[in-house]
Amino acid sequence: MKYIAILLLVLPMTSFAQVVDLRDNTSSDDLLFDKGALELDLKLHEEERPALEQRTADLEWSTGRFQETVAIWRARCDIGTSPDPDFIAGCYREQGELKQQKSSLQMIQNNLQRDVETFNNRYYQLTGDIATIERRLASISSQNEECDEAIIAFDSSSDPFNDGTMETMKAVCGSMFDGN
User: Fold this and answer.
1) Which residues contact 91 (CB under 8 A, 6 or more apart)?
2) Is 34 exposed, middle or buried (0-12, 13-18, 19+ CB in 10 A)?
3) Residue 22: helix, strand or coil by DSSP?
4) Residue 158: what pLDDT?
5) Which of 28, 94, 173, 180 is the most exposed, having the fewest neighbouring CB atoms within 10 Å of its CB?
6) Which segments of the chain have a pLDDT < 70?
7) pTM to 2 decimal places
8) Cα–Cα distance for residue pair 158/165, rounded to 1 Å
9) How many CB atoms lie under 10 A from the CB of residue 105?
């Protein structure tokens, strides 16, 4: 099937679209160029991984500290056992602060999950596009080898015009250029 895939390469501070032509007549030089560009983009993309991992570790640490703070607050602010209205008011104030902290942590977690999902989607897109190009390059290499074998058979034939080696060579090698 003939089609054109559009690959977006996103570089820091730059955004552009590169059209990778994956039709049967795409040259291996074009595919190698596109593969190199995608591999560079993947390398740059991978440089973002440590920052995401650090953000994840920071969130886990903050969540752990928050859970400890909540446990301490629950142990200290057993509102039903204290008749002191100032103590109860302080506990409710702290409860409101804890709810705000929880909301902030939830927002950070949501943003991080979105960023990790975006990172992973981009990673899978890039590696998939590279694999597609590698399969196409392998196909071209195989076709080149088949054509080389047909040419060798033609050259070594004592009667290439009558024994079918010319037709075989034309069929094998011609399909590389015109799809026939």
Assistant:
1) 73, 76, 77, 79
2) buried
3) coil
4) 87
5) 180
6) 1-25, 79-80, 178-180
7) 0.66
8) 10
9) 16
Nearest to 22 by CA among 135, 124, 143, 127: 135
> Tokens 């057993």 belong to which residue?
78
The contacts of residue 16 (CB under 8 Å, 6+ apart) are 8, 9
Residue 106, both tokens: 């939830």
Domain ranges of the chain: 4-156
Distance CA 58, CA 72 (A): 21
Give residue 79's pLDDT: 66
Q: Where are the alpha helices (DSSP H) in 13-48?
A: 28-46
Copy the structure tokens of residue 95.
């409860």
Integer CA distances (angstroms), 23 to 27, 57, 128, 151, in order: 9, 44, 17, 25
Q: For 7, phi and psi rounded to 5 degrees?
A: -110, 130
